[in-house]
Structure formats: structure tokens, C-alpha cells
Design goal:
single chain, 14 helices, 0% strand
Length: 322
């Protein structure tokens, strides 16, 4: 059991490292709209998923009925299309750090839900490390809000900032709903591997992304050829690394870790999002940010140690939308 916990945590950290790229992409491509970012990323994700699943398509498709396809469609909307449009809007309108504050509450939401599962560690035992993680996320957001306030003190567009924060809340609700619904479906169909389910979700997402092409690219600012090459390069890389490889690592972790600990693994997405932000801005973390990182790390390690000391049951996958 101890080895499974350690291996699961390693995979969870790897997934977080790749998912952190999702927060960087809207900043790198700030001259493109969130709808364009979502359409391009998920067209690429769908294409890669189709290529990977094509050799086994008949066998996998034979396992699916109308209910499964319906679930894949609404899960793709919640966990991919809607989530990323809201996330990209929040990053561009309210700032990456402020968005991290709200999205960073995901570990708390998922862990609280997981604590209700049969045989899970009691919430009372999880409360201290959860509180520490929450303090870390709050410090991240506080530092970002203070920095954003300083940068936007003159001529600040409060309505746009408020809209961005609302989008971040919407992204939190969208992903939380997705995570719970997706884990229930994977528990209902244990005969379908988590990797195949992720690829099927990618195919469904890619098909839905086709509906975004016209409204996303019909009108908008004119970009240079170089900007378009950068646009497709970044979105293709995010689709491959975050959606395909990152989800594969997360699927493996979710087979090994209980939902209460999987919720804590999402903290690493926030941490790596901060790290990439520091590299992009070419600066070192401030005092509040260092303290936040320490709190997040200690909170996750504390939670992991609780699960290593107590046998936790196998749980259904919580494949994430990234």
C-alpha cells in the first residue's frame, strides 16, 4: 500500500507539472480570444486522441451505448470546452494569480466530496492539512491581488476584472461538477480503461470544438503569419502535454490513490502554474509566494502521510479535464 501511495503521488505531481501549462498559454497568447484558444486546443486534442484510439476503435466503440456517449458529451462540455473558455477568460481579464486563488480551491472541494466515500479517512483528520493548503492558496491569491492592484491602479477596468473573477468561479464549479460525474461514470464502467475513457473524452471534445470554429475565427483581429504559427504551436503543445500526457499520468494516479488524496494532488497544478509564471515574468517569488508554496507542500505531504498510515480503499478515477 505504501508503494502505491508513493507511485501515485509521483504521477500526480507529473500531471500537475503539465497542467500548469494551461495557465501560461492564455498569457503567452494574450492577443487571441479565449474562444479561439479553446477551439484550437481541443481540435488538436481530439485529433491526437482519434489517432491513438483508431487502431482499437471497433473494440472500444462496441463497449459504448447511447448513455455512455451522452455522458462523454456533457462531461466534455463541462470539463473541457466550458472550463477552458472560463479559465482563459479569467486569466486574461483578472490575472493569472487571482485566477489561481479561485481555481486553487479545487483540492478542497474534491477532498470534501471524497471524504464522504465509504471507508475514506474522516474529514476531521484531513481538516488540518486541508486548512494548511487553503492558507497556501489564499496567500497565492493575496499576493496576486496586491500585485494586480498596483499594476491596475490607474484606469482600472473594474467591470472586466469582476467578470474575470466570476469566470474563475464558473470554472471552479464546472470542473468540480465534471470531476464528480466523471468518477461516478468510471466506477459504473470498470471494464473501460481510464486511458480509453480519456481518449474517448478527447474525441467527443474535438467534435464539440468543431462547433466553435465558426464563431471563434469568423471575425476578429488580423494576426501575422508568425502569430498564427505561435498560436497553433502553443495550443498543439498544450493539447499533447496537458490533455494527453497529463491526463494519462492523472489516470494512473487515480487508480492508486483515494479521492481524498487525489484532491490534494491538484495543488501541484497551482504550484507549477506559479513556477511557470515566474519564469515567464523572469522574476523570483516574493515572500508571500514562498510562504504559500511551503504551506501547499507541507499540506500535501501531511495528507499523503495520513493515507500511508491508514489503508484506504481503491477508488474510481477522477480524470481531470486538462
Amino acid at each position: 500500500m505504501r508503494g502505491k501511495i508513493v507511485f501515485g503521488v509521483i504521477n500526480g505531481v507529473g500531471a500537475g507539472a503539465l497542467w500548469g501549462l494551461v495557465f501560461l498559454a492564455p498569457q503567452v497568447l494574450g492577443d487571441f480570444s479565449p474562444l479561439q484558444l479553446s477551439a484550437a486546443r481541443y481540435l488538436a486534442y481530439g485529433l491526437v486522441a482519434l489517432v491513438l484510439l483508431l487502431p482499437r476503435w471497433r473494440k472500444v466503440a462496441a463497449q459504448l451505448g447511447r448513455a455512455e456517449w451522452g455522458a462523454l458529451i456533457w462531461l466534455s462540455v463541462l470539463g473541457n470546452i466550458l472550463y477552458y473558455v472560463l479559465l482563459a477568460s479569467a486569466v486574461q481579464w483578472a490575472g493569472g494569480a487571482s485566477t489561481s486563488l479561485i481555481i486553487g480551491l479545487l483540492p478542497l472541494v474534491v477532498t470534501v466530496v471524497g471524504a464522504r466515500d465509504a471507508g475514506a479517512i474522516r474529514f476531521r483528520s484531513l481538516a488540518p492539512p486541508l486548512l494548511l493548503s487553503l492558507i497556501g492558496v489564499t496567500l497565492v491569491g493575496l499576493d496576486g491581488l496586491l500585485a494586480d492592484t498596483g499594476r491596475q491602479a490607474v484606469g482600472a477596468d473594474l467591470w472586466m476584472r469582476a467578470a474575470g473573477l466570476l469566470c474563475a468561479v464558473g470554472a471552479l464549479i464546472s470542473w468540480s461538477t465534471y470531476s464528480i460525474g466523471n468518477s461516478r461514470w468510471l466506477a459504473r464502467r470498470p471494464d473501460i480503461s481510464s486511458h480509453d475513457w480519456s481518449l474517448l473524452t478527447g474525441i467527443a471534445t474535438g467534435a464539440l470544438a468543431l462547433l466553435l470554429v465558426l464563431p471563434a475565427f469568423w471575425h476578429g483581429p488580423v494576426h501575422t503569419d508568425g502569430a498564427w504559427w505561435r498560436f497553433w504551436g502553443v495550443n498543439g503543445s498544450v493539447a499533447l502535454l496537458a490533455s494527453v500526457v497529463g491526463n494519462a499520468l492523472w489516470n494512473r494516479a487515480s487508480r492508486l490513490l483515494p479521492l481524498t488524496l487525489m484532491g490534494q494532488m491538484i495543488v501541484f497544478e497551482t504550484m507549477f502554474a506559479l513556477l511557470y509564471g515566474f519564469l515567464w515574468e523572469q522574476r523570483l517569488p516574493g515572500k508571500l509566494e514562498v510562504l504559500a508554496i511551503v504551506c501547499l507542500l507541507v499540506g500535501v505531504l501531511w495528507c499523503a502521510s495520513l493515507h500511508r498510515r491508514q489503508h484506504a480503499p481503491e477508488t474510481a478515477d477522477t480524470v481531470a479535464p486538462h
